[in-house]
């Protein structure tokens, strides 16, 4: 057991609590007092367990991202790419509007940082957003190779478009948009899917 950790310390449970704090408040908005209240740990215990606030955020974001990545891959593995992209967007909206959790997306909220001290956070979030777009683009490239999308379709632009729709939905969810409203937005966005072959 690391110095400063209480008996029965469950790092995964603590990270889940920390995810919710950063998801609700963003990196800069999450105070140490809020993090301590959420975890039940004092400052020395938090630092002993996870390191700095930046390291704590990155550990929490990694946990969040693993779950989101699994969900995204699951839907993008659908045999039909259009169905996969639509289900991915709908699932993201469902998470972004889930009762009992902060609305929006940790990647978007966490990215709302402005100080030089949080440059590493911004850089990591940009990398993860780029990775999401690459996952979508890879699926669209496969769809193109399989004849589901015409060769003339710019899969990079289409992947960027659907990634931005997902990010925009997160911002709107954080602002109070309902699940039903955002599902309708996804339906409209899917009309951009290139027709025919």
Fraction of residues in helices? over 70%
What is the count of DSSP helices, taking H or I runs of 4+ residues? Answer: 9
- In the CATH scheme, the class of the domain at 65-192 would be Mainly Alpha
Mean pLDDT: 88
* Global shape: elongated
Sheet with the most strands, sense and barrel status: none
What gap, in angstroms, lies between the N and C termini?
A: 59 Å
Essential attributes:
about 200 residues, mainly alpha, Tetracycline Repressor, domain 2, 9 helices, about 70% helix
Would you kindly provide a written description of the structure presented here, covering whatever features stand out?
- By secondary structure, the protein is mostly helical.
- The protein has a domain of 128 residues: Orthogonal Bundle (Tetracycline Repressor, domain 2), CATH 1.10.357.10.
- 70% of the residues lie in helices and 0% in strands.
- It is built from nine helices and no strands.
- Helix 4 runs antiparallel to helix 5.
- It is elongated.
Concise synopsis of the structure shown:
The chain is mainly α and 197 residues long. 70% of the residues lie in helices and 0% in strands. The chain has a domain at 65-192: Tetracycline Repressor, domain 2 (Orthogonal Bundle).
What is this structure's SSE topology?
Blueprint: H1 11-29, H2 32-39, H3 43-50, H4 53-76, H5 81-96, H6 106-110, H7 119-145, H8 155-174, H9 179-189
Helix pairs in contact: 1-2, 1-4, 4-5, 4-7, 5-8, 5-9, 7-8, 8-9
